[in-house]
UniProtKB/TrEMBL annotation:
Record-given protein name: Twin-arginine translocation signal domain-containing protein
Family annotation (InterPro entries): Gluconate_2DH_su3, TAT_signal, TAT_signal_bac_arc
Pfam families in UniProt: Gluconate_2-dh3
Source organism per UniProt: Denitromonas halophila
Domain of life: Bacteria
Length: 184
């Protein structure tokens, strides 16, 4: 007795969709070895201080002011001025260089790798707590407050609409919808 052959019916659309996804996957895998990780690409803009310093400052900025939904590029906008400023100010270049050297030495002693390569934020924070009262940490933290939070491109990501006076003020634009205030 002959057993009928089971055939799997695949529509043309399903076949094309599947083969397209497979081709995209193969392309991504082959291009993956050529792609530079995002932090290294952003840090490459540090021509005077060097990409290693740029990457460390970027990781440090994210650890001091953590916002998981904010892209690295916004943090980079806040720390990029250090490269140009350090080119003109040897004292600043020394402060940053010495500070990062100290941070990397602490990280290497405790975790066996430089600060920017320490895998978890919790581990990196222990290192930052060690240097938090020093001039280097205070300089980065102080500049980040204004450099990061004064960037108008970041405001919408926090739900801030910006100035309201040119739009008639806050009273007519939702100020009166505060449900947590008692009604008069």
């Amino acid at each position: 007795m002959r057993v009928p052959e089971k055939r799997i019916a695949v529509s043309r659309r399903a076949f094309l969709k599947g083969s397209g996804l497979a081709a995209a996957g193969v392309t991504a895998l082959s291009a993956g070895s050529l792609m530079v990780p995002a932090r290294e690409a952003l840090a490459a803009s540090f021509t005077h201080l060097g990409p290693g310093v740029g990457k460390t400052l970027l990781v440090m900025a994210r650890d001091i002011f953590p916002h998981d939904k904010i892209s690295d590029r916004f943090y980079m906008l806040a720390i990029e001025p250090y490269d140009a400023a350090a080119a003109k100010d040897p004292a600043l270049a020394k402060l940053i260089g010495d500070g990062i050297a100290q941070l990397d030495a602490l990280a290497t002693a405790q975790f066996g790798k430089p600060y920017a390569e320490v895998p978890t934020e919790t581990e990196r924070l222990t290192l930052l707590y060690t240097i938090e009262h020093g001039a280097f940490f205070q300089k980065i933290k102080g500049d980040m407050v204004t450099g990061f939070y004064n960037n108008k491109a970041v405001w919408p990501l926090f739900g801030e609409e910006g100035s309201s006076w040119e739009k008639g003020g806050y009273v007519d634009r939702g100020f009166d919808d505060l449900d947590w205030l008692p009604k008069a």
